[in-house]
Structures are given as structure tokens and as C-alpha cells.
Amino acid sequence: xxxxxxxxxxxxxxxxxxxxxxxxxxxxxxxxxxxxxxxxxxxxxxxxxxxxxxxxxxxxxxxxxxxxxxxxxxxxxxxxxxxxxxxxxxxxxxxxxxxxxxxxxxxxxxxxxxxxxxxxxxxxxxxxxxxxxxxxxxxxxxxxxxxxxxxxxxxxxxxxxxxxxxxxxxxxxxxxxxxxxxxxxxxxxxxxxxxxxxxxxxxxxxxxxxxxxxxxxxxxxxxxxxxxxxxxxxxxxxxxxxxxxxxxxxxxxxxxxxxxxxxxxxxxxxxxxxxxxxxxxxxxxxxxxxxxxxxxxxxxxxxxxxxxxxxxxxxxxxxxxxxxxxxxxxxxxxxxxxxxxxxxxxxxxxxxxxxxxxxxxxxxxxxxxxxxxxxxxxxxxx
Length: 382
Description:
Layout: E1 2-5, H1 11-14, E2 22-24, E3 32-35, E4 51-54, H2 64-69, E5 73-75, H3 82-97, H4 100-108, H5 114-121, E6 134-138, H6 142-153, E7 157-161, H7 167-171, E8 178-179, H8 183-189, E9 192-195, H9 209-212, E10 219-223, H10 232-241, E11 244-249, E12 262-264, H11 273-293, E13 313-320, H12 325-336, E14 340-348, E15 351-358, H13 364-371, E16 376-381
Parallel strand pairs: 1-2, 1-3, 3-4, 4-5, 6-7, 6-9, 7-8, 9-10, 10-11, 11-12
Antiparallel strand pairs: 13-15, 13-16, 14-15
Helix pairs in contact: 3-6
């Protein structure tokens, strides 16, 4: 099978693909693609492409809807870079609390009687301690949860909100973290607010004039998630008035560069050796298991399915989540005289996935008949 690399992928990850793969940047019509930051929205996909593995959490560089229509599974690697982002978030909190950046720049200009000038001028850069302050966490997933727990150990009070919090994520949260039912509760209580949600139509511009008005005077905002979460124009107005005292972002844009009280970090959240290795390994394992066994884990457009192989052949069907598709698939297999030894059918939003282990190798005609069932996007026989 052929794997195309759109970015440099850590060698430790590529080793996880094992034997049987032709891997390179110049692959034509690949079975799988591994990508980090390359924007793929204008790319044409070959007929052989079955999966895209993003070595990272965000997938806004990938045309998800177009992939779903073509039966292309898109994977990401949630949590693989979580520790790297968590550590940068703690750094961002400290940078927001004290004018460390301004102090460093000021100190560079000192030329004589340095110690005397330092003692005289340091008060301009003084700040506050994190201990005893309230941190509001928007999004308590892999990254937000780790930051919330770390903040507790720094002596902060933590209030968090996540409407989509999983049971597993909830179990990992420190019991001292206060769960808010709405974002408004976080806005009202927090001295610091850190954002850890994806950029969607519901979260875009969530930091805006209306929501800033609900916050404490002098609130400090950390955004290591996506630039689109913040309305830059309205944020600058809040910074100018002092309503927001500091904004630290890992997503610099033209609108916020060189704005007073803005610290712009050049997207370093996952830029550690460990994060890049972890993401590459996870992406490769996901891609390998899907291409060889049809199993799906951490897909953003299709449901998770993990079914042990139990027969000589496996049929994998990616289809729309509509009635009667499964009935029509099994009818085709019955006509073929194939016995279904194991079956899994799951859905995720508008998309569904059916995996069937059958008693013998199905004919090409059977696969073609399944492919013609209304709503079926792709059929694979492994």
C-alpha cells in the first residue's frame, strides 16, 4: 500500500507502519495520507485514497465533508500533544500575570549601572501571583483537563465548562474543580480564562463584546486553540479600555500583532520533540489498523469500530446514517451465499460504518452490488 507524506513526519512514527508500505512525498494516488499542517482543501483525491491521518488534533486544514462523501476516513491524534500544550498554557498564565516580556525587552536596553537601574525600574513590570486566583477553563478535554488539574496544584481555584465532556475525561479531573453548566458562569467568576475548544460555528467569536462584558474587570485571556475563537476587533477595544488586561495567544494574526497587552506566540503549543513523536506514532498506528483491519479509532468523521478478525474475509462499508442500509447489505450477502460470522454497525452524526466478517471471500460482483446500495460511499474487502 502507498502512503503519501504531505509534511515531515517523525521517523519513530513511520516505523509503526511496518512492512508492506511504500512511503514518500511523491506518491501518486496513495491509499493513505499523513499530514500535519498542509492545507488540503484544494487538493484532488485519487480513487485509491482511503484514509487521511492528521498528526495533531485540529483538522481544519482537511476538507472533512468532501472526505465523508467519498468514504475517506479522517483521523486525528487527540491527547498526543496535550502535555506540550499544557506546559505552554502554564507559561502563558505566568506571562499574563506579570509583564515578563516587557521587562525582558526593557532590560535589553540597559547599558550602565545595570543593577541600580533594575532596582529602580522593575516596579513597572510587577504583576500578581497565580495562587488564590480563579482560572476559568473552556473545554475540559485532553488539554483543558490537564491544565485545570495543574492549576489546582499551583494553588488556583478552577471553574470549568464543557458541554461535551466525556465520562473518561470527567474521571481524570481533580475533584476540586468546579463544574459550570454554562460558559457565562465561567466568564463571571474567572480572573483568567483559557480556551480549549475547536473552532466551529458555535465557538467562533465566542470572545466578543457581549461575553467580555460578563467578565471581571482586568480579566486575562489565554487562547492556545484557534484564532477564530476571538473577535480581534472587539478584543482590542476591551484591551484599550482595560476591561481585558492581557491576551496571550498561540495564533498571531495581523489584527493583534504589536497591540499593547497582547503576547503573540508563534504557534508553539505542540512544537516539542515529544509532541511531534507522539502525534506521528498515534497517527501511524491509526492508519495502519484501518488499512489492514478496517478498525477505526479517533476518526473525526466516522465512528470508532474495533472488531477482532474472526474469519477469512472482512467487508467494510462506509455509508450514510439512513434507514435500511444494513438490511440491503446483508441481503446482498445472503444472495451470494455468504454467512456473516461477526458484524458491527455504528454511526457518528450523518455517517455510519458497518464491518462484516464473512465465511468466505466475496466475489467482486457482491462488492459492486453493495457499493450500489443507496447511501454507500465506499466498500472495502480485506
